[in-house]
Amino acid sequence: MLQNTANKFITIEGNIGAGKTTLATMLANDLNFRLILENFSNNPFLEDFYSLSNSNTLALELSFLAERYNQLKKIQYQDIFQKGFISDYFFKKSQLFAQNNLSKFEIKLFNKLYKIMAPSLIKPDLLVFLYKDISSLQYNIRKRGRKYEQQISNNYLESIQSKYLDYLKKQKLFPAIILNTQQIDFVEERHSYDSIKKLILKKYSIGCHYLELA
Fold first, then answer.
1. What are the backbone angles phi and psi of residue 146, rounded to the nearest 5°?
2. CB of 142 closer than 8 Å to CB of 152
3. Known catalytic residues?
4. Which of 108, 121, 160, 207 gets the most CB atoms within 10 Å of its CB?
5. Which CATH superfamily is domain 9-212 in?
6. Average pLDDT, the chain
7. Is 172 exposed, middle or buried (0-12, 13-18, 19+ CB in 10 A)?
8. What number is the average pLDDT over the span 101-126?
9. Using an 8 Å Cβ cutoff, are 179 and 130 in contact?
10. Banded model confidence at residue 194, pLDDT cuts 50, 70, 90
């Protein structure tokens, strides 16, 4: 079903296991938006990183940086009749994860490349951060069963969550919603999904907004 929304480029974000891809896919189908999903399944460095050897961490972060840039850059050259876009990541994610995972020498190189790429990309009309606590994230990680994710520690998830929230609370570049999804299941509960969609169709001022579903 077609919907009218002032937000033509919507980004769904969240920690590992928050449900980003699931919600982005549901919304894209519902709104008739083009879906942009992070391509991680063929990344040769990802499983090695989660195995705790960390021997190719810089290569991992640079490969994600390049892949995300190539995907998001294409948005600016799409058919003007495209209704809208929805993605399950935003470009800043690359820098947030790199800050968490790289050494101080590696991050200097990474940041040089990031600062060249970032200014040329369009900003989202709305970013939605799906908040869940760490135990809920771990439950979802176990449930979906990706072998290489099963060793992710609570400390790692807490660190990533803090970096996201610290950034979103301070940024003044685009409207962002931190949406508490702790007590809802938008896959099984249609009313919860409809409530989220209703929030996403609204226009928000630039900055960070904290929302809970009634």
1. -70, 120
2. no
3. 88
4. 160
5. P-loop containing nucleotide triphosphate hydrolases (3.40.50.300)
6. 89
7. exposed
8. 96
9. yes
10. very high
